[in-house]
Design a protein that fits this description.
With 80 residues, this protein is an alpha+beta fold. A hairpin with a 2-residue loop joins strand 3 (55-59) and strand 4 (62-66). The chain has a domain at 39-75. It has helices spanning 15-19, 23-30, and strands at residues 41-42, 51-52, 55-59, 62-66. A two-stranded antiparallel ribbon has the order 1-2. The protein has a two-stranded antiparallel ribbon with strand order 3-4.
Length: 80
């Protein structure tokens, strides 16, 4: 789990924190991992929960990483 340290001083965040990364930047960073067979997951809550990336799609001019796991009461929108 990632640990976030809160301070009273304003923190200047790098531009990529709020803007995000390009596909090229992401691939470049992923290439630095020695084990290229590691599973990739995504978190939107500082690592508290992680989910596998099921699909990578282009949507509205952006690359979107999706988790397609169903919740108990959902019906799949795709057949695979």
């Amino acid at each position: 789990m990632l640990k976030i340290i809160m301070t009273e001083e304003p923190v200047t965040q790098p531009d990529w924190v709020t803007r995000g990364k390009t596909i090229r930047q992401l691939i470049q960073e992923l290439r630095t991992f020695e084990d290229q067979d590691l599973l990739v997951e995504i978190s939107v809550d500082d690592g508290e929960t992680c989910r596998p990336i099921s699909l990578v799609v282009k949507s509205n001019g952006k690359c979107v990483l999706l988790n397609a796991e169903l919740k108990a009461d959902e019906t799949p929108l795709y057949k695979g």
